[in-house]
Amino acid sequence: MERCWDLNPNNRPSAIEVSELIELFCNSSYMGANKDKEIEKQFKEAEEYRKANYTSIGNSQLTSHHPQAYYTSRLLNPFTRDLSNNDTDCLDCMID
Description:
This protein has 96 residues and is an all-alpha fold. The termini are far apart. 56% of the residues lie in helices and 0% in strands. It contains three helices and no strands. The protein has a domain at 1-62. The longest helix is centred in the middle third of the chain and has 27 residues, at 37-63. This is Serine-threonine/tyrosine-protein kinase catalytic domain-containing protein. It comes from Rhizophagus irregularis.
């Protein structure tokens, strides 16, 4: 589980690895064997952490905004200002 949080993406498990671990967890639960208790323990710890920190995580995500974020539409660059005029001019030209 902790490998998923690694800052370096190359150290994180692939989707196939994650899928295999989840499948292993599900199969061990269904079979009643529970051979790999560590995986089960990590899932339970992660769920407990999520439940305990849900409100604090949710509140911080809702209230924090990037200081340079724009919430109104604007031109991306000065050249786009004349685009509509240029389109009209081009439509007037017919190629036979």
